[in-house]
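Journal club side-thread
Mid-discussion, someone asked how the predicted structure for our own chain would compare to the paper's figures. Pasting it here so we can look after the session.
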Amino acid sequence: MTKKEKTRLKELIRKGKIKDAFKELEVLVDEDYKDELLVHQSNYNRLQTKIRQKRIRHDDAEIDNNEIIHNILEIIKLCHTSDDILENQYEGSKIAEGKRLTNIPARNPKTLVGREQFLKDLHDNLNTHQQVVLVNAMGGVGKTSVAEAYTHQYQDYYQKMVWIEATEEGDLKSAFISNTELMKSLNIQVEKATMDELFNEMCMRLNNIAEQPKLIVLDNVTDNILQYKRQLPSQPNWHVLLTSRSKLTDFELMPLEFLGEEDALKLFEQYYGEKIDKEKVLQLISLFDRHTLTIEILAKA
């Protein structure tokens, strides 16, 4: 992808022509990112359907739309020349196959701004206090990014790792069963089995894995998780990390706050890539309460 093509795609996104940007990206995107692009395109189409049918609140629609825009911009960046790529793709980005039972999203912990102490406290809660921890915040503050960074920063500590992303409808059982990589890792045959049977078998086999410690991340869960609480892997056999927009009081809550001024400026500068007028940038990002995802979008635009 040339710089001219990259500029044009960003201009389409800036003008809100997301469908046009997807069409051009289908042609321009590197082969490595085509599957990821299709996922974001599908999420965008579902969001538009919800908006048309008035099945989503305006604020939630705006947050979801911003997340999709962020993901598109990230693909554009990764498809460009290597000197334009942030440090996200680094030598340790892939966790060893024998350790991970599912795909684990790539994330360099060093690129996560302002969350160093949070990651240490998170590890302490999971390890020392053996809590099922719920990282809670509104959309776009960085819950998933924190979970991704944690898995990579502490990957040497764990013997086995699992990452499950809840479905759009929030049904955790469906998210487990649709994860073909986990099915394969657990040697589960799907023929002539009901959803309940498959889910129960997956949970049982996970609980029976002897190696310790192990980590399971359940990303973007809803209160739907409560009905499966007894079946899911749990402490002390598994360290369980949840992320959610909901405050689920059955678990140990770790609220993820907005970035402070210094960290917000550092994040903007990291994505902007040039010298900035800190006073002007601070005025701009303060209009959006130093919201993490919004800062990234503003810096990349």
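Post-session note: Confidence is low (pLDDT under 50) at residues 81-92.
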